[in-house]
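To fix ideas, we give here one paired sequence and structure record:
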Amino acid sequence: MNEEMQNYYGGKWENGASSEFLAVHNPATNEIIGQVPLTPPEQVDRIVQAASRSFEDWRRTPAATRIQPLFNLKFLLEESFDELARLISTENGKTLGESGGEMRRAIENVEVACGIPILMQSEFSEDIASGIDEFMIRQPVGVVTIIAPFNFPGMIPFWFLPYAVACGNTVVIKPSERCPMTMHKIANLFEKAGFPPGVINIAHGGPDTVNALLDHPEVKAVSFVGSTPVARHIYARSAANGKRVQAQGGAKNPLVIMPDADVDMTTRIVIDSVFGNAGQRCLAAATTILVGEASEVFLPAFREAAADRIVGCGLDDGVQMGPVITPQSKVRIQGIIEQGVKDGAELVLDGRQVTIPSYENGNFLRPSI
């Protein structure tokens, strides 16, 4: 497998206008499985213009009509469920169970958005002041862009996509250049679902492609999920260009565990939280605070459960934790652990050195505490 990604806009596929590509790697093997184009600003402009041309007709389409392609998309996603889950595991590294859970959440968002004719109803207030009534209507803003992260390539675009189109907006999605293949595959379903050309579009690329979207005058709103430094950049640049923006930066969740917490249940929840998706998610509880006597019970329990966690290729049966996304991520995490030791932390469980049979070139780490 070494598929070349294409941009999708105006209902058609087109090769990247630049000769520059990034390789897409399987993190379990580091084999190249795809090529993603670095879309230049002039092609970004064509993509946005295609979405802009479709906006006026789409916004005038009744909401009850706009949701009909979403109903179709829900069933198409169900039909492709296993294939999409395997593709996520292949390009991201997470286990099949995690990939299936991700796609289930994506489909659930499509289902909820099918209720937009009720959800987006407006409000009317009589006599807010003497002789004055007030009413509110909700209107689409225009072309909106979704800048998605690598860690949930199938789910996070669907936090925004179904609601945006159901409310009458047109969309340009910029998938992560590390994991572009899942959304590339899903884009094949948009036309089958019945979306008019230009309503949903895909622009592949890296930082320059993102900046071209943030600067484009026809892009009216931006939704982003990813790291905090990038979120700051996207928020500042979007705001400077007068756009509506929601920039959701990185998060880590500290857990406080009291001495009377249930040992078995708490251990399972904590270990799943910390090491699920190889820790590459904002739900990962990277810091756990054990209060009082809790440390005497839970630290040994955590160590045993983490040491028993099965690490390997996410496509293999029984695997509980896959690789991290890139060799650079592996080196960065190893460095964080080393810095903790230098700063005086006790390394209770060291997972830095690991070799997985048949996957010796993969980006694997075992759990560390």
User: Anything to note?
Assistant: The first strand starts at residue 3 and ends at 4.
